[in-house]
């Protein structure tokens, strides 16, 4: 796997984490327990930091980046992802904050200074423009993303199931590698 230091900081994670060998992780990145990073993910913690919570999966072809500090924004925008988050294929996350138990659909783009509260589904192909806040308990779809409807009890339960399914899958990949 391509784990690269940047300015003396190397991505960190423990043995419970699966990172596909085709993915690239650079710089100030921390992955929580039981995370998985699937093929062709590019994550750059170079001009700020990336923090990913426990049991979160980042699926194939996703791009994770952030924004540097500037005079007008002295802290920049790091990328912070909570626990039990499923990030679908080819998602772009840039300088945003995702809470816990979120599903980001395939091809979605979430931009700088967006905050996604806990228990949210973002539909595939959605664009969440900068400086938005997505309220807990809803489905958001479209470009720009708009609140579509409350999540059902089944959808809320599925958020944790989805994350757990990827924990099981990454365990199979780790076992096969031994």
UniProtKB/TrEMBL annotation:
<dbReference type="InterPro" id="IPR047324">
    <property type="entry name" value="LbH_gamma_CA-like"/>
</dbReference>
<protein>
    <recommendedName>
        <fullName>Gamma carbonic anhydrase family protein</fullName>
    </recommendedName>
</protein>
<dbReference type="InterPro" id="IPR011004">
    <property type="entry name" value="Trimer_LpxA-like_sf"/>
</dbReference>
<dbReference type="InterPro" id="IPR050484">
    <property type="entry name" value="Transf_Hexapept/Carb_Anhydrase"/>
</dbReference>
